[in-house]
Amino acid sequence: MHKLKIEHLTVEVEGKVILKDFNMSMKSGEIHAIMGPNGTGKSTLSKVLMGYPSYRIIEGTITYDDTVMNDLQPDKRARLGLFLGMQMPLEIEGVTNADFLRSALSAKEEDQFSLMKFIKKLDTVVEKLEMDKDMIHRGINQGFSGGERKKNEILQMYMLEPSCVILDEIDSGLDVDSLRIVGQNAMNYFHEEQPIVLLITHYQRLLEYIKPTHVHIMIDGTIVKSGDISLVEEIEKFGYDKFKKNGTHVIEEMK
Predict the structure, then answer these.
(1) Which residues make beta-bridge pairs with 9?
(2) CATH assignment of 3-92+162-249?
């Protein structure tokens, strides 16, 4: 059983405070969806969790199991089991998908790494995601469409088998068919592997495939309400204004 705990986290980016006394606790098997208006700090949270250097923690702690991660480099966090599916995956010329994944898995598994097992699993997951098999031999995301890039993030997740998955707007830019493929395969992985899941999204449509156990509304850098999936219906019906009162936040916790 893994645990991710964020306590009283305040974060500054380029002199501006984005996250403000942010608190959240998650454990294996839980799927936490964070929703909120643009510019409220959702993507900042994902980057802070993975250790982006330009995001400065002013106070508070991020703890994974028994390890305080505040000062850990991104590669150390990845070795602990964290994985970030990015909102805008980068294109990396000269490094193929297959080479990248083989190197990453070899570093993770060391003497346990099996090339034949790797090839078999890679072929299986590529087929599940309905990806062109030639894509694994191209530069990472090189010439990929938005949907293909998001499928590639899910491919990496399946191959690396993280114990904590952060998906930052994995649904953005997807057409209906790609959303179904990404959503269903992500949910299958969550069901099989039972990782901690932090899902950042604007849209209810992704949650038709990935069913969260917890839903949080984030406004102005902090959680203002937490609940179950029924909270999504409130957002769809009333928008985010309902969760503000005279310019201040109405903070409610899930019962």
Answers:
(1) 22
(2) 3.40.50.300
